[in-house]
Amino acid sequence: MIRLWHVAQSRSFRVLWALEEIGAGYELIPCSFFDKSLRGPDHLARSPAGRVPAVEIDGQNMCESGAILLYLAETRAPHLRAPEGSAARARFLQALHFAETLGAHLANLTQHHIVLREEWMRSATVMRLEAKRLQNALGAVGPGWASDAFSVADIAQGYAVWLAQRFVELPQPAAEYLRAIKARAAFQAALAKDGPARIYTRSFYPPPEG
Ligand SMILES: N[C@@H](CCC(=O)N[C@@H](CS)C(=O)NCC(=O)O)C(=O)O
Known about the structure:
Number of domains: 2
CATH topology of the largest domain: Glutathione S-transferase Yfyf (Class Pi), Chain A, domain 2
Shape: globular
CATH class of the largest domain: Mainly Alpha
Bound molecules: glutathione
Strand order of the largest sheet: 2-1-3-4
Largest sheet: 4 strands, mixed
Radius of gyration: 17 Å
Order of helices and strands: EHEHEEHHHHHH
Number of strands: 4
CATH architecture of the largest domain: Up-down Bundle
């Protein structure tokens, strides 16, 4: 049995989506950023920084979405990763980790637009800079960039691009990539199970003018 601690719209969506792609049985445990549950000792034993995703899988606790995705592919869905030592492996690993280059910008933008509620707490300069840096980084993304065949790298990256459209206009290849991602049955099944939107309640968060 796999158990997934999940907050709707967060990085744990990657694992939820992967589990749907794999068709593995799992228990989804909805969590919230708005209570103290992710800071309790039970959750900290699963995720030392008190984050999601966290899973219990094959009898052990695990955190870090990229590592979980790779482990799931290795143990349950080898077709969702490029084999070790193969020519495709370098590109696959690069995309799996590049998802967190996008993720760093998304986290900063989420902090500024959503977590920091008062205007005076925010830096308009950082908001504009991060939006620009995100858009530049998205220039790398397009169909086939992560791997020739759909893989967990596309799950890591697809989630980031799906979020990025809330902060920037996607470059055309990234928009095309996202269209293909959204058409996947497993992506739609994961969305249906994601839970109510509590983080991103607007479809677009424009950078401040200036
Ligand atoms: N590198 C980690 C990042 C995990 C992470 O920061 N998750 C966010 C949600 S997207 C979280 O749990 N934030 C709660 C907090 O910072 O307290 C991963 O990929 O799993």
